[in-house]
Amino acid sequence: MTGIINVYKEKSYTSHDVVAIMRRIAGTKKVGHTGTLDPDATGVLPVCIGRATKLAEYLASEDKTYIAEVILGIETNTGDISGEITATQMVKFDEDAIEQAVQSFHFNERGEYMQIPPMYSAIKIGGKKLYELARKGETIDRPARPVIIHDIKVLRFEPEKNAFTIEVKCSKGTYIRSLATDIGQMLGCGATMSELVRTKSGMFSIDSAIKLEELKQASEDEKLAKFILPVDELLPYPKIYISDEALKRALNGNPLPLSTIGEMDNSEGQKFWIYSDDKIIGLYISDSKKLCVEVMM
Questions:
Q1: E-state strands within 73-218
Q2: SS3 270
Q3: Catalytic status, residue 278
Q4: Which residues contact 174 (CB under 8 A, 6 or more apart)?
Q5: The domain that contains 193 carries what CATH number?
Q6: Strand 128-129 to strand 124-125: parallel, antiparallel, or no bridges (unpaired)?
Q7: Residues 172, 120: one domain?
Q8: Structural domains in the chain (count)
Q9: Are residue 117 and residue 178 in the same domain, yes or no?
Q10: CB of 80 within 8 A of CB of 74?
Q11: Which of 157, 159, 214, 252 is the most exposed, fewest CB within 10 Å of its CB?
């Protein structure tokens, strides 16, 4: 059983909880997720099954889209409403000022956004995860990391709650909690994130995400396979079918000279799925003379 399932993560589950449950549902230890979601967040969490776990990093590197509610006038130690309130301030709810602050994070406005990750995160510094230090009451300097906000917009204002909702399309590694904190600082009143939904991860959309209970039932009915998406459809690189002679080289992890492949449309750095008959051998990348293995399947 190999492929990716578009799981809908519900509230109160950690991403690791989802992986543990999917191991039982799929009946295999080879399960991995493609991008952490906080326990209170919901939405798209693609899960790799079987040999597809080798491709988790490829899928995790894809852009993400989120919808988040931000509350002004409150700051917390986690950056979201689940944390302890560390400060409160009066809010002058100015829709134009909010819109201007939000748009200032757009790539077209500032280019790369140098973001400081929250203390309550799984990033390791000095071999220790930040959230482990935070739980001990420690706060350390975290280097800012470049991320990209490809698109950002205000979906609605709720002045009665001192809140507004944004939609953000961003690069891997972006913390929406930190974005909310930075918007609050720019507005001079502080802010925290109160809701977060991941609506897209790469080509995966919330519209087709499946809840764990439905996947559990499908497994019991021996129908889980219909939810498992093939890797070559999700990473739609060109396919190359190789000869038995080339297959021997491929199975040993050796490069495949272009002279053994035959005619093909090729440019340096292009990736290909290598097949023998109907079986995927692996994902390869080309240079001017050969194809080199990136991931053996």
A1: 74-76, 85-88, 113-115, 124-125, 128-129, 145-147, 149-158, 163-170, 191-201, 204-205, 210-211
A2: coil
A3: no
A4: 64, 113, 115, 147, 148, 149, 168
A5: 3.30.2350.10
A6: antiparallel
A7: yes
A8: 3
A9: yes
A10: no
A11: 252
As given in the structure block, the two tokens for residue 239 are 């396919």
Residue 190 has, within 13 A of its CA and on its CB side, a CA count of: 15
Report the distance separating Cα 64 and Cα 67, nearest Å: 10
Neighbours of 250 (CB within 10 A): 21
Q: Specify the 3-state DSSP secondary structure of 166.
A: strand
Residue 180 in contact with residue 192, Cβ under 8 Å?
yes
Instruction: State the Cα–Cα distance between residues 158 and 148, nearest whole angstrom.
Output: 27
Let me know whether 215 and 192 are in one domain.
no
Place of tokens 């400060």: 87
- Judge if 156 and 278 occupy the same domain: no
- Both 181 and 86 in a single domain? yes
Residues, the chain: 297
Q: What is the pLDDT along the chain (297 residues), one digit of tens a residue?
A: 889 999 999 999 999 999 999 999 999 999 999 888 989 999 999 999 999 999 888 888 899 999 999 999 999 999 999 999 999 999 999 999 999 999 999 999 999 999 998 888 878 887 888 888 888 888 888 889 999 999 999 999 999 999 999 999 999 999 999 999 999 999 999 999 999 999 999 999 999 999 999 999 999 999 999 999 988 888 888 888 888 888 888 888 888 887 777 666 667 788 889 898 888 888 988 887 888 888 888
- Name the nearest CA neighbour of 51 among 235, 282, 291: 282
Asked whether residue 227 falls in the same domain as residue 249, the answer is: no
The answer to whether the beta carbons of residues 127 and 41 sit under 8 Å apart is no
73 lies in the same domain as 191: yes
Are the C-beta atoms of residues 291 and 273 closer than 8 Å to each other?
Answer: no
Count Cβ atoms within 10 A of the Cβ of residue 118 and give its class: 0-12 exposed, 13-18 middle, 19 or more buried: buried
Could you say which of 38, 96, 182, 221 is catalytic? 38
